[in-house]
C-alpha cells in the first residue's frame, strides 16, 4: 500500500514503496514526532527544530491555507510589474497650475491686447492639413512671423514669451508648451472681453520649425474658397461662421473693439459696408466677412447667432476647442 502525505507537493513526504528504505526527511520527521510524544508522556516539553515546510504541515487546515496564501501574496508583491506610464493625450491642468496660469494671463493679456492674441491662436492652428497630416496647433507661428498673412503678429508672440517668463518659479514652470500657452491665451482673450469661458486641455508638443506655407485662406476669399479651406482642415460651415465671429473684437467695425458679443452677426445682416453715405464704409470688415451673408447656408447661421448670443457663445467655444486641437501632437 502507498502511504502519501495529503500535501505531497510540499516536499516533506513522497510516496513510498513497500519495502523501500525510509527517506531521511521522513525519518527525521518521524523521529521528531516520536520525541515529541515521549516528551509529552514524560510531562516535559521538548522543542522541535522543524523546517518552515515541516512547521506548515503541523498547522491546522485553515491556518495552513492562510499561511500559504500569505507566502504567495508576498511572492507576487516582490515580482509585481510597475504601473505603465500614462498614455500621451490631452490633459487638464491641476488647480495649482491653473491658478498660476490665470495670474500670468491676467497680468499680460489685458483687454486691449486680446484681439492680437486671439488672431495669433487662429493663425497658429489654421496651418493644419487633414490630407497631409501636418501643421496645426504647435507654436510653429514663432517661425512664421515674416509671412505676409502674419503681419502684426510679432506683438502677439512677444506676449506669449512674457506669459512664459511670468510662469517661471511658479507651480506651472516647465509644465506647458508654447502651443499650450497660445491656446490658453486665446481662450483667455475671449473671456476677458466678455465672451464664453472655454476649457482648453494641455499637453501639446511644440514644432521645431515652420509649417508649410499657403494654407491660410485669403482675406479676400469668397464663400466657396472659405468653405473649401475649412474643409481641408476637417472643419465645416458651422465652424467657419462661428470662428469668424472672433472679428467682433479688434476694431474691424463690428461693435466695441474689446467686447466679445454677437455684434458681428447683426452687422453682417445690416451690411453697413454698402452705405453710400458713410465715408468709412469700406473700412468695416474684410471682403471675406462681406461674402458670408450672400451664402444661404452661412446666412442661416448668421441669423441664428444674431438672434441668440448664447448659442453663438456655445458654438464658438466648441469650434475654438476643435481649432486648437487641430494637428496637435500630445505628450
TrEMBL record:
<dbReference type="InterPro" id="IPR010255">
    <property type="entry name" value="Haem_peroxidase_sf"/>
</dbReference>
<feature type="domain" description="Plant heme peroxidase family profile">
    <location>
        <begin position="114"/>
        <end position="331"/>
    </location>
</feature>
<dbReference type="InterPro" id="IPR044831">
    <property type="entry name" value="Ccp1-like"/>
</dbReference>
<keyword id="KW-0560">Oxidoreductase</keyword>
<protein>
    <recommendedName>
        <fullName>L-ascorbate peroxidase</fullName>
        <ecNumber>1.11.1.11</ecNumber>
    </recommendedName>
</protein>
<dbReference type="InterPro" id="IPR019793">
    <property type="entry name" value="Peroxidases_heam-ligand_BS"/>
</dbReference>
<comment type="similarity">
    <text>Belongs to the peroxidase family. Ascorbate peroxidase subfamily.</text>
</comment>
<dbReference type="InterPro" id="IPR002016">
    <property type="entry name" value="Haem_peroxidase"/>
</dbReference>
<dbReference type="Pfam" id="PF00141">
    <property type="entry name" value="peroxidase"/>
</dbReference>
<dbReference type="InterPro" id="IPR002207">
    <property type="entry name" value="Peroxidase_I"/>
</dbReference>
